[in-house]
């Protein structure tokens, strides 16, 4: 009996313990479920709170951008993020898609004058430039608009704007923020070339003015590219007034050009080394490179050249080490002559001499540039400029030459020279064994038989050369050259093209007197008939008061006005 009661009590205690454990586990599960639910509710509330804050921040930012756009655009709000696409153009004017034309037109932007846009680089994840830009270098520049013909979702950007937005490498998909702004007309600009040489250009401010005609804006810290013939100069914008971004359309700007810093000087910039008469300079030139020198002819030297009929000798003595050079000379303002833009040249193999005479209409007082061009290999040379005295007969000196009519002569059947009759038989026998006449039409030169194999004529121009000179002749005179304006011609035609037809040639403007690039043909038919270049057509459109009546007349019409109104020739 006691045994059964003990077993029943143990069984009851065990069941009570199991019920307590199950109840405890249930309570733990419920507590954990409540804690998990609370965590989820807190996370949801935190996410909702963050979204509400982001929405409020985005709304505030949008309202701020709207206010800035209204302020910058003076009532016109235009903001787009477009993919940047490069196109080959000049200046700083971009191409926008047609939808932008409609949006700007609806807001009356075209009635407010020239349109300007602020272009900013949009940061992207994974971009190599993002980290640098986030440190405070947010690339921003400004531009005008050329036309509305770009593909939808893209903006076509010329090289000037592209290089300022992407100075190193552009991302795979370059995105640009385009915002309509209004810019004040500029009054002052301070520029700094990145290397020496720009300030030495004749009328460099006029060259800069011609380059700026293709621009609508300038922005501080931008790099402006100025071309002078084949040379390219880069100028950094250090300071602008009245603001850090200005309009350069229809305004007069005071420009200061400061000297380049020592740390920014480029070593590849051309430099003119002075060369005195009678002195020589030695140097080393590599293939495809130029070394430049300058010398001057003053009034006293020119008077001596004209009165004494002396000549100027420009000479290059080159070492025979397998290299070769060419010699080019030009008169300023062409300060850096090259292969297809020069006034005098010499292409002899080895050492070479160039004689300049006062009878040459291109020679006169002024400064001249001399270029030593590395035609082949690396060449050591010595260059010099001398005044060459002419040797004249003394008074009473007898000439040693006698006419063929003074004695009885007969023409040699081989060399065609006139030989005295008494010795013609011996001469012809000797001449036929040792001499030969060049059979090329128009040549007729008499050569020794051993020299005849090296006497050749160019198949294109017919000029006679030594066989070793033919390769250089073909490369110099008959290899097509590409002008910076895009025309491809042989050397002789290229020199003529660059002297009279090339839009990049330098001319003296008849209205402002500056040496500027001629440009293409004038847009106005009447200006083309008067022979005005593109620059002269624009420059001559400025007005000035007539000296006789005080009326404002365009400079290019002043001569017609004087004849038609005042009967002055």
UniProtKB/TrEMBL annotation:
GO biological process, one term: ubiquitin-dependent protein catabolic process
Region (Disordered): 1-46
Pfam families (UniProt xref): TRAFD1-XIAF1_ZnF (PF21366), UFD1_N1 (PF03152), UFD1_N2 (PF24842), Znf_XAF1_N (PF23580)
Keywords: Ubl conjugation pathway
Keyword Protein biosynthesis (UniProt): no
Domain Ubiquitin fusion degradation protein UFD1 N-terminal subdomain, first and last residues per copy: 90-182, 185-260
Entry GO terms, CC: VCP-NPL4-UFD1 AAA ATPase complex
Recorded GO MF terms: polyubiquitin modification-dependent protein binding
CDD domains reported in the protein's UniProt record: BRcat_RBR (cd20335)
Alphabetical list of InterPro entries matching this protein: TRAFD1-XIAF1_Znf, Ufd1-like, Ufd1-like_Nn, UFD1_N1, UFD1_N2, Znf_RING/FYVE/PHD
Entries under SUPFAM superfamilies matching the protein: TRAF domain-like
Bias-annotated ranges (Basic and acidic residues): 1-44
All copies of domain TRAFD1/XAF1 zinc finger, residue ranges: 532-562
Family (UniProt): Belongs to the UFD1 family.
Protein name in UniProt: Ubiquitin fusion degradation 1
